[in-house]
Structures are given as structure tokens and as C-alpha cells.
């Protein structure tokens, strides 16, 4: 039960998971259900977002305006934007909010074709296919790509949509230790003898699935090492860039750009439009043959209603801004700002003595609370001072690795961030979650 309903469960549901669940319910019982129903601790009902770059939101409970540190609105596009919003409104007038048809039954508008061309070009692949929901992109595409007789090797902290897609595919699933390429290689070695040609292996195909930036940790994937291993063992790579596309890399092109990886080395690139692009939906980008195959066979494409036209227009427009095709340099400014904001916020939290997960440049960072019983207090005390943070534990993370997960946006001002840091500093002392000595102030 998480405050943001991510349902980000570890893949290996087995005995351990069974006991974790029981322990979790015991803790809830002992504390009078502090996690699930702590009044005023969560910002789960939002009355409205403000127009000032979506920095603030209003809760219905006490109508307070809060600084929003929980939203995936990395580049600030989920707000009134001088370039994107008028175009989205125009497309609403021209196409309405729904096509009420699947892509193959009249639901493909010029916007959908333009969107797929833009996405392919932006992520650096020959072709792309888009879906109405990021979650469905993973959970529907994996069964369309892989099945019985094949092997999926998945990072242990992959998102629930990947877990569900992998399970639904019927392929055999193995999990490797989170972000640990040496363990991935161990698992691969167990499954196939090194150097064996593809045709002599016990698996029809092998697919390794990782994320660009992990949404509950903020870690950047060790992609170059993963790719080298996949090449050595002739496995396909599937990269979920939900949290990295648009958010990192010099021109926003994600972890490949950030880490200097050639996109040709990643077989299947997946991403969502619900974060950096301020819209909804998801994409798969890959070779022309792969995308053509998916367009003919993937049930979510054949039978599901196509992306809402204003949402498609919002994505096209935000990509144009990021690429500078709107005639301004706002895209470059946003990218510089999110990098600066993320690195500033992270380094200040570390200086205060918090244990912070995640890597430099990542807009996602986790302040470790460990004890799930501290979640409600941490969240409530921050909210009292109008700072909204998301706190999570099982099943989004292991039970005793509860954390406050912060998402920094390019639309946060330095003043916003300084104010939030002051609040989090006080709350950290109050709740007792600073596990390191604070760095002494420099004179
Ligand atoms: N993949 C990852 C890594 C995610 O974190 C999420 C959701 N945050 C999704 C896929 C699903 O995307 P959406 O929310 O756009 O449906």
C-alpha cells in the first residue's frame, strides 16, 4: 500500500514476499493502521494544480497550497505552457478528446503519425509505436514480443508494469540483483554456456530488461556494462526510459545520451509521456521491422483506442520545445535547470546528514526512512509546512526500506528548493531519520 499507488513490486514473489506481506500487516495492526489510514499525512486528493509552472497544488483537506515534490513533471510541461497549451487546445477543437477508435479502425490521425515520427527521431531509433498508457505499453508489449520457451532476465526493482508484462508473456523469468551487471552475467551463465551460438541454446530468445532511471531509487542504470554482457551472450536489451527520457542527457535524449551509449546497441527502447512531456501514453522505439511487426500483432494496438489527440499534440509540442524547434531556447534552459536543481537538492540533503539514494543528474532521489512507521509522521510534518512529498514502502520497496521519494522539477525555483530543504531538515531531526552527521557549514 503506497501513498502514490505505484504498485512497484519486486519481481520475485515467493516465500519471502509472503512473509513480507504478513509482517507488513502485523505492523499495520500494531500501530493501528498508521500506514494505510493516517489522516492528513498524504496529499492524495488534489483540488487543483496551480498555473505557476505546476510548482504547487491544492489539497482538499485543508485547502493549503503546497510545494509539490512528488510530481514526475520533470521539465514543467504539465502546466500552462506558452507553446504547448494553445496547440493542445486547437487539437481538441479539431479532433476532440478521443478518437473513439483503435488505430486500425479510423483511430489513426495525422497527429498519431507525426507523433511516431517525432518520437523515433527524438530517441534515435528508425521507428516507433505509441500507446494510450505507459503502463499498458510494458504490460501489453512484452507478451507480444516474447513467449513460452524464451527467457526474460529482469532487474529486481523493475516497475510493476514490466513485472506484469513479463508474467503475462509466459516466458521463463529470472531476476538479477538490482543494477548489478556481475549478477546479470552470473544468471546468464547459469542459463547458457558462454559462446554457444543462438541456435544451440535452450532458449528461443533471451531478453534483459532494465530501466534508465529507477523510480524509487533515482539510480541511473549501468547501461554500458549491461549492453556489453547482452552482446557477449547474444541477449536482447529492453530499456524502460519512463524517468530518463526528456529528463537527462545534454539534449534530453535520456540515459543513452547521458552515458554515451549508441542507441543502436539497445534493441527495444520503451518510454512514457507522463513525466518529462506532461502528457499521457507510452512508446516503443526500435527497428522498422520490429515496429511493423508490433503494428500487425500487438492486441493493445489493434483493439485499444488510440492516444487522445490533445495528449498527442502536447507530446509533439513539448518535444519541439526540447529540440528548440519552437524557435526559442526554452528547451535547453529547462534541461540545464533540471540538472542544476537535481544536483543542488541532492547535495544539500546529503550535507544535512540524510541517507540519499540515486545518482548525480537524476531528478529522482530517495531519502531513506527505513522504518515504515515513520512515513506518516515525515509526510504529515512536511505537509504542515506546505511541502508535499511522497513516502513509500512495501510493495513499492522492500518493507524495511521505507523512504521519502523526491522528484525535482525544472520548474522549481531556487527559493522553492531552499524553502523545501529547510522544512525537510527540521522534519528529519524531528522524525529521527538523519543517519549521518551533518557537514559543518563552510565559513
Ligand atoms: N515504467 C516505469 C519505470 C514507471 O515508473 C511507470 C510509472 N511511473 C510506468 C512504466 C508506467 O507509466 P505510466 O504512469 O505513464 O502509465
From TrEMBL:
The keyword Lipoprotein does not apply. Residues 66-424 form the Aminotransferase class I/classII large domain. The keyword Phosphoprotein does not apply. It comes from the Eukaryota. Keywords: Lipid metabolism, Membrane, Pyridoxal phosphate, Sphingolipid metabolism, Transferase, Transmembrane, Transmembrane helix. It is found in: Endoplasmic reticulum membrane. Gene3D superfamilies: Aspartate Aminotransferase, domain 1, Type I PLP-dependent aspartate aminotransferase-like (Major domain). Its cofactor is pyridoxal 5'-phosphate. GO terms for biological process: ceramide biosynthetic process; sphingosine biosynthetic process. Pfam families: Aminotran_1_2 (PF00155). PROSITE patterns: AA_TRANSFER_CLASS_2. GO terms for molecular function: pyridoxal phosphate binding; serine C-palmitoyltransferase activity. GO terms for cellular component: endoplasmic reticulum membrane; serine palmitoyltransferase complex. InterPro entries: Aminotrans_II_pyridoxalP_BS, Aminotransferase_I/II_large, AON_synthase_class-II, PyrdxlP-dep_Trfase, PyrdxlP-dep_Trfase_major, PyrdxlP-dep_Trfase_small. It is a single-pass membrane protein. Pathway: Sphingolipid metabolism; Lipid metabolism; sphingolipid metabolism. Its main location: endoplasmic reticulum. Belongs to the class-II pyridoxal-phosphate-dependent aminotransferase family. This is Long chain base biosynthesis protein 2a-like. It comes from Durio zibethinus (Durian).
